[in-house]
Specification:
The protein is mostly helical. The protein has one domain. The protein contains 5 helices and no strands. Helix 4 crosses helix 5.
C-alpha cells in the first residue's frame, strides 16, 4: 500500500531574503532623499483625511504596500540592482515595508493631526533638484 506524499506546509512569516530586502528598502528610504521625499504626497493626503475624520489605517497600509512599495522596489532595482542583488517581495513583505513607511509618516507628524484641525503640509525639499525618483522609475 503506497502512501501519498505530503507537500511541505508553507512557512508563515518572511524568509531571510525578504527580511534583508525590507531592511535594505527601509535604509534606502531613510537615506536617499528622492525616495524619502516621495512620501510627501502620501503624508499630505493622509493628514487631510485624518483631519476630515475619514482616515483608515488599514486602507493607508494597503495603499503604501501597493503603490509606494512597488515604486520603492523599482527605484532600488534601477539604482542599486546593477551592483548585485535585486529585490522581489511577497505581499507579506510589502505589508511589512508599508508598516515601516507608515511609522515614518507618523514621525513626520501624522500622529499629531486631530479631527477638525488644519493639517500642516509637509514641504518637499527636493523640488527643483536634479535627483528625482522619477528618473529611476
Amino acid at each position: 500500500m503506497a502512501t501519498a506524499k505530503k507537500t511541505p506546509a508553507k512557512k508563515k512569516g518572511l524568509t531571510e531574503d525578504e527580511k534583508w530586502a525590507v531592511g535594505e528598502l527601509n535604509i534606502i528610504m531613510l537615506n536617499d532623499k528622492s525616495l524619502y521625499y516621495h512620501l510627501t504626497p502620501w503624508y499630505n493626503n493622509y493628514a487631510k483625511k485624518k483631519a476630515k475624520g475619514t482616515y483608515d489605517r488599514d486602507a493607508a497600509l494597503r495603499g503604501l504596500a501597493g503603490t509606494f512599495t512597488t515604486n520603492a522596489i523599482r527605484f532600488y532595482n534601477k539604482k542599486y540592482g546593477k551592483y548585485g542583488r535585486t529585490i522581489r517581495l511577497s505581499k507579506e513583505a510589502k505589508a511589512e515595508f508599508a508598516k515601516l513607511a507608515l511609522r515614518e509618516l507618523n514621525e513626520w507628524g501624522l500622529k499629531n493631526v486631530r479631527k477638525g484641525s488644519k493639517p500642516k503640509e509637509h514641504i518637499d525639499r527636493t523640488q527643483g533638484t536634479s535627483d528625482s525618483i522619477w528618473r529611476y522609475i
